Amino acid sequence: MNTKHSLIRFGFATLLAAVTLTGCGQSGPPVARDDLPVKKLEITGNDKMKFNVTKLEAQARQRIELTLKNVGSMPKQSMGHNWCLLTLGTDPKAFAEAGLAAASTDYITPDRMNEVIAHTKILGPGESETITFTAPAKPGSYPYICTFPGHVAAGMKGVLEISE
Ligand SMILES: [Cu+2]
């Protein structure tokens, strides 16, 4: 056994893994821009199955700190809310319908997690959650929805506008 060679081989394999993980392809998360301030976004959901804002804005690759608060008073089992940001071109209605039975994963089917950029968990009345993520690198109108059954159909959705 040649120790030196296996060490080199190990080093090379590690390098390869690192390159793969940091993502040279499109599937990896975008690298956050350090020259921009963190964008703080706040949004609420209510008992009428509505978000208080239907349009949010951020810049490409900007760090985002988003807080969702459920300002309603109805029980979580019948009126829970989350905030789920979808990839460009994902159909919100079809996405929500695919997750109807996925209660244990916040009504997001694991089959379609590749279409989710970021999401909070389902929140009950008075609860809030803050998530941080990096805005997509590609400008465009990214749909966001509440995945609780029936809420997209009732209009609980909006758009995150990503500019250059
Ligand atoms: Cu909802």
Please describe the topology of this protein:
Blueprint lengths: L2 H20 L16 E7 L9 E5 L3 E8 L5 H4 L4 E3 L5 H7 L17 E4 L8 E7 L5 E6 L11 E7 L1
Parallel strand pairs: 1-3, 2-8
Antiparallel strand pairs: 3-6, 4-5, 4-7, 7-8
The protein binds copper (II) ion.
Copper (II) ion binds next to loops.
pLDDT averaged residue by residue = 89
Number of strands: 8
Helix content: 10-25%
The percentage of residues in β strands lies in 25-35%
Shape: globular
Helix/sheet category: alpha/beta
* Tally of alpha and pi helices: 3
Rg on CA atoms, Å: 19 Å
Q: What ligands does this structure carry?
A: copper (II) ion
Instruction: Give the uncertain stretches in residue-range form.
Output: 10-25
Q: Quaternary state, please?
A: single chain
What do we call the CATH topology?
Immunoglobulin-like
Gross CATH architecture: Sandwich
Distance between the termini: 54 Å
Strand adjacency order, main sheet: 2-8-7-4-5
Q: How would a crystallographer describe the biggest sheet?
A: 5 strands, mixed
The number of domains is 1
